[in-house]
Amino acid sequence: MYITSETVIARQPITTAIKLFADGANLDDMLRIYTAGEADGFTTNPTLLRKAGVTDFAAFARTVLAHITDLPISFEVFSDEFAEMEVQARRLASWGRNVYVKIPITNTAGQSSVPLIRTLSRDGIKVNATAIMTLRQVAQTLEVLADDVPAVVSIFAGRIADTGRDPVPVMSAAVAMAASKPAAEILWASPREVFNIHQAQACGCHIITATPDILKKLSMAGMDLDRLSQDTVRMFRQDVLAAGYQL
């Protein structure tokens, strides 16, 4: 499902469509979203897996891939050592044609993963370079990607914003830089609100991730603000009555 500007924000037309990837690791949520056609792809990471209570990753991943065969799904390597990362990446890639292998841009020691990304991409493996925060990291990643192998460059715009910085200039510059790599897509990662979809579209991003909570909020896009104000007051009133508060 492509999210158009008319869907996301009323009276602010943007011609660019953006792909929406559901971000999470709850199997029931993933299958529900897939069946409903609410996403164009799926992303996971170790933190989301742990939060969802996944204990057998291989079984989880194979179940997901058995049901979702026609949309891209990103699974992340677990190792912090590059040699083992490569082994895990090749294993993950072998599980399905729609698998993108997430490689963090550095390991925990701050050593760059760019050489590994180069090797995997040039061997035909679809890479999702993740945890990217800077344009230097974007440039280094784009430089080594194979021209004809699909890849995703995931920039954590939400985390950039958490530091008090505006992520929009970074994302806009990244999109411009990616023009030299037609098989690479720029992904706005870690969004915090529905309005981020509008911002990502304005930047020209190809993809944005969304948690199930953000997906639920899409129904509010373009909602009349007077109605929203009244609904908010009703919520307060319901909670007063439910709690039995008195003054």
Structural write-up:
The protein starts with a strand and ends with a helix. It has a single domain, classed as Aldolase class I (TIM Barrel), CATH 3.20.20.70. It has helices at 5-8, 27-36, 46-51, 57-67, 82-93, 114-122, 135-144, 157-162, 168-178, 195-203, 212-217, 225-243; strands at 2-3, 18-23, 41-43, 73-76, 99-104, 127-132, 151-155, 184-188, 207-210. It is an alpha/beta fold and 247 residues long. The protein is built from twelve helices and nine strands. Helix 2 (27-36) links the parallel strand 2 (18-23) and strand 3. Helix 7 (135-144) runs parallel beside helix 9 and helix 9 (168-178) packs across helix 10 (195-203).
The CATH topology is given as TIM Barrel
Number of E strands = 9
**What string, H for helix and E for strand, traces the elements in order?**
EHEHEHHEHEHEHEHHEHEHH
Largest sheet: 8 strands, parallel, barrel
Poorly predicted ranges? 3-16
Largest sheet, spatial ordering of strands: 2-3-4-5-6-7-8-9
Q: If helices are DSSP runs of H or I spanning 4 or more residues, what is the number of helices?
A: 12
| Beta-strand content | 15-25%
Q: What fraction, in percent, of the residue positions are helical?
A: 40-55%
Level-2 CATH architecture: Alpha-Beta Barrel
Question: What is the 3D form?
Answer: globular
Average pLDDT figure: 94
